[in-house]
Each structure stands twice: as structure tokens, then as C-alpha cells.
Design brief:
The protein has 231 residues and is of the alpha/beta class. Helices cover 36% and strands 18% of the residues. The structure holds 6-chloroguanine (6GU).
Length: 231
């Protein structure tokens, strides 16, 4: 998979690239590249944003700046680029990221992520230069960079080989393998600690019963009252 992230802070992604599963995915042939809006701005003094028409607080990322960066990267009219490549803008109001959307993105061979800053994008970026918008939750971040990393994290770990264990990403929380339910609980050694013991079935070596027990726990957690995080 080839991912391009458009950002004003490309160096933020240096740390991200060093994380094990990301490094694994990159070593296995995936690519994660950053494009700096500022390096391609047609405006003077590295300007990339401007005050909103109609007034109001904050700054808005300009449409001509985003267009210039896309054009420089893809050597084509960005309006045509989004026809052949998924171009996602990270916005607080976008489609909520979940496991199904992550799988959908992981199936793309090429993906472009546009990070906004400040008050976000000029609306014409969203209307004409991108294919869709994704949000990682209903709260506002100072910019799309952390959201882009969240998207890359969950997408890259779905690619074959990224986790080392082929099974690890298959039967995990919210996956189709668990019917979208949270994952069952895990335990490891010691089997007994301060009187807190591991369920007997897991020590039984009886694989069919273990599978059944795990499916039941997973289903329980999917019920409104079953989640450990719910009151
Ligand atoms: Cl994608 N961007 C920003 N700026 N804030 C967010 C977000 C994205 N998702 C949740 N909050």
C-alpha cells in the first residue's frame, strides 16, 4: 500500500514511521510519504492559510495551496487525481473511523490523507479536491496529523505481515470474525496472583471449549451492559 500524507508538519511522522508495526509494513513494501504544503505553496513567505471570509477566529488552509501541493505530487489536475486515487481529508465532522472503514481503506492500493490545521480547510478543498472525509471522533484536534496517524496505524496493521502474527489482526475487537463485538479477555502467567485466578477453561487445553468460552465472553461484552467501560 502506498500512502501520501499532506501536512504542514512532515517531521511529526518520523517518530510514527519508527514504530514496530509501521516499520514492518514499510519493510514489507508499503510506503508512507509526507508532502509539505509549505514546500509547494504558490504564495510568498511560505503562506498556506488565510483569515476566513465573513470574519471569525482562526485561519483556514487555502484551496490554492492544497491544489498546488496535490498537483506537484501527482503531476495532474487534482480534480482528476481524486477520480483515480482515494483522497481523504481528515476533518472532525467526517465519517467516523471504525474497523469496517479501516478494512475498506486497507483494501486501497493508494491512499492520500490531507491534514488541515487551525480552523480546517477552505470548503472547496472538501467539495472538489477530495473523495471523502474521515474523523476519528467527535472532538476537535488542533490539526489532522494525529488523526492521520491513527488512520495509518489501524490500516497498516491490517496488512499481511505487519503484526508478525497472521492471526492477531483477524480475531480482534470489532472485527467481522467476532461479529463486530469487542474481543474476549486475555490472560497470561502467573495463573494465580494475589488470589486472582485465570478461568479454569483456559488452562484446560480443551480447544473447542476455549473457543466457545471466548465467543460467549465476546458476545457478553457487546451487550449494552456487558462492556467493562460502561457503568
Ligand atoms: Cl480528522 N481532525 C481534527 N482537526 N479534529 C478531529 C478529527 C480530525 N477527528 C476528530 N477530531
Amino acid at each position: 500500500m502506498q500512502i501520501d500524507v499532506f501536512t504542514l508538519f512532515p517531521h511529526w511522522f518520523d517518530w510514527f514511521r519508527g514504530q514496530r508495526h509501521v516499520a514492518n509494513a514499510l519493510a514489507l513494501g508499503s510506503e508512507l510519504e509526507c508532502v509539505d504544503y509549505r514546500a509547494h505553496t504558490p504564495l510568498s513567505a511560505g503562506q498556506v492559510d488565510d483569515t476566513p471570509f465573513g470574519g471569525g477566529a482562526g485561519m483556514v488552509l487555502r484551496v490554492d495551496v492544497v491544489e498546488a501541493a496535490l498537483r506537484a505530487r501527482y503531476d495532474d489536475d487534482p480534480v482528476a487525481v481524486r477520480e483515480r486515487r482515494r483522497v481523504v481529508a481528515l476533518t472532525p465532522g467526517g465519517r467516523m473511523l471504525d474497523d469496517a472503514l479501516a478494512s475498506e481503506l486497507a483494501a486501497e492500493e493508494e491512499l492520500t490523507l490531507l491534514c488541515g490545521r487551525y480552523e480546517g480547510f477552505d470548503e472547496r478543498v472538501l467539495e472538489h479536491l477530495c473523495s471523502d472525509q474521515i474523523s476519528i471522533g467527535r472532538y476537535v484536534l488542533a490539526g489532522g496529523e494525529l488523526a492521520a496517524m491513527v488512520v495509518c496505524d489501524t490500516v497498516l496493521r491490517k496488512l499481511p505481515g505487519a503484526l508478525g502474527h497472521e492471526e492477531s489482526a483477524h480475531e480482534e475487537s470489532f472485527s467481522a470474525a467476532l461479529d463486530g463485538a469487542p474481543e474476549y479477555p486475555h490472560y497470561t502467567r502467573p495463573a494465580e496472583w494475589r488470589g486472582w485466578s485465570v478461568p479454569d477453561v483456559l488452562l484446560s487445553g480443551h480447544h473447542a471449549r476455549i473457543r466457545e468460552w471466548r465467543a460467549e465472553r465476546s458476545r457478553e461484552r457487546a451487550e449494552p451492559s456487558g462492556g467493562a467501560s460502561l457503568p
